[in-house]
Amino acid sequence: MTDTTIREHSNTREHARRQKRKQTSQDDEEQLACPECDGQLVSDEERGETVCVDCGLVVDADEIDRGPEWRAFDSKEKDQKSRVGAPTTKMMHDDGLSTNIGWQNKDAYGRSLSSRQREKMQRLRTWNERFRTRDAKERNLKQALGEIDRMASALGLPKSVRETASVIYRRALDEDLLPGRSIEGVATASLYAAARQAGTPRSLDEINAVSRVDRAEVARTYRYIVRELNLEIQPADPEQYVPRFASDLDISEEAERRARDLLKTAKEQGIHSGKSPVGLAAAAVYAASLLVNEKVTQNTVSEVANISEVTIRNRYHELLEADGHAPD
């Protein structure tokens, strides 16, 4: 191919590019002009519309708002609210900032990986896991937070309680309260404290049923971290247990309300002092169900509340006498 031919081809391609840019520019000008009056078009982001400033014609509607869903009034607030990716969480040892390699051995199109690729991905997962827990503190956190999540799931506690328990455990770890105590014991005590703080308490027996440490160690560790961390935890209110017991027993709202009234009367007369709040709540639910003629046995209430029938009978008589009813 001669130099003249090459220059002709080059000129032809350059001419084609100029024509394409010119056409694009003309198309953009047509888009910016009103099709009715050739007036200027503006975008109304608040209403998601493109309108003509001269005749008011709405050229485009229901536009996608690509901005954030929040408002900021200064640069500092904007920096605090802007975010990318999933929110951070205290329930993970790295606050959820690291990445995970999925366990599915498939590519982006859903096709299965070859054996060589599966081996490579397994090695990457192993090294990724090692890098995520580089020191003893991170390994400690990973084990403890996993234990908190497991127990909270078994007890049906909400995410907010798990977050609070994770923060309590992190504080105990930062203040060097773990030496001489097991990771599982401190994790269980942190969850027990968080549940009481959130107003969704669980009894020590319920906690002990899902924990890997014994009841005495949980109680001892709980008292220790509450004292050392200066946690403000009010004594458990028997009324806080009533909704859960009522839901598990499937009793009516009237019976639940009656149980609350029995407990309020007991507190006014000081009967609740020195007695287990779980036992009082279970006895109140049982007594209330009888007062509204709903058939609930002591054995059923005992299984739901995880306390003995003897305790229910004793508290049941005391509650009815305080309320002015003669027990059967």
From TrEMBL:
Membership in a protein family: Belongs to the TFIIB family.
Repeat positions for Sequence: 146-229, 240-321
GO biological process: transcription preinitiation complex assembly
Keyword terms, alphabetized: Metal-binding, Repeat, Transcription, Transcription regulation, Zinc, Zinc-finger
Region annotation (Disordered) ranges: 1-32, 69-99
The name this protein goes by in its record: Transcription initiation factor IIB
Binding site for Zn(2+): C34, C37, C52, C55
Described function: Stabilizes TBP binding to an archaeal box-A promoter. Also responsible for recruiting RNA polymerase II to the pre-initiation complex (DNA-TBP-TFIIB).
Domain TFIIB-type: 30-60
Annotated GO CC locations: transcription preinitiation complex
Feature: compositional bias, Basic and acidic residues: 1-14, 69-82
Source species of the chain: Natranaeroarchaeum sulfidigenes
Any one GO molecular-function label of the UniProt entry: DNA-binding transcription factor activity
Lineage, opening ranks: Archaea, Methanobacteriati, Methanobacteriota, Stenosarchaea group, Halobacteria
UniProt-listed SUPFAM superfamilies: Cyclin-like, Zinc beta-ribbon
Gene: sua71
